Amino acid sequence: ELMEGLRRVIAHSVSNSCYPVPQEAIGVGSAFEGWSPREWDGVYRLLVPLSPPPGHAFYLEPSSAGQMAARSFRVRVELVCACHREQLGRELLCFLHRSQKELRRKHQRSLLRTLCTGSYLDVEKTSHWFSQCVRSSWLHVPESRSWHLVFQPCSRSCQLRLSDGKESLRVEVLFGVRQGDSDIFVVSQPPEAQRGGSSISGSGQPTKANIMASTAWPETYAVAEAKFFRHVAGQVPCEGLHLKCLQLFTCILRGTGFSSSIWKTVVMHVLTTVPLSQWRRKEFARRLWDILAYLGRCLQLKRLEHFVLGNERLPAEISLPRAMPKLEPLNLFEHLARDAAAHREAMQAY
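Structure tokens predicted for IPIL1 protein (350 residues):
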């Protein structure tokens, strides 16, 4: 609610400018899915979708071959005709057809000249701009009377620490561009699973934010995964049993070499193979065994498929880009198939 109030103030302040328009924030990651691994860093992550300002359009261009756990894109910005269009009763300036002299006289600059590198939306420039917006807008948010705000430096997101004297919250605001009308976004930071070091059963070598090009926007499936967990929550007879299973494996078995992202992927797959009607409290131990057995089969086959990419069994309410379900499923254990020593180590850990 606090972040929504802040977003509305920022959206109002940029409504007649050339800057992107922030949409309603979406909570992503384990903290908003109802579980937290033992190594959770205590940060609440919010994805703020950005819409192009009037007279501009966003187009996504792949910038990687798609053989990683997170594909990467660039957001190309194009000017589009805004002649004869109005916003809030005012005629919009057309960046495509008005002269630069007139635009300068009216203190108007296109998005291409403010937050882009070449023709592409720049993550670091966007992060700096959004942080400046938060600074200038904070005192106009009613909650600012109760919460003290401190900024944490970051080049690819907006990191905040909020405290009211009793409790302290750490918030990371990520920026994203939606792919069409789907639940798949490109985002400023790599997904949680792609940060830090790899494990023996991780999904390949992670892409670190500090070596990514400033125009690279990794694809994230966090919103689709969160919707999947909400879909499951409404159908399992024992509320949260699947989350308790996930919590158990990621906390008690920490240090065995299997990352929390691997356990999460396995649990999601088991939720689509074991009928949801069988997730009852009295069957807790059996469901734990199902999850362990599924992981064992994947290790033997050296294949664990990505839960979203190439998955044609997702619930209908999860919206994907048209081509995504037809993609060849990504193998998160591909490195085990290539490296016999890594496979032996993973089997020993199992």
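Residues 235-349 form a domain with the Poly(a)-polymerase, middle domain fold (CATH 1.10.1410.40).
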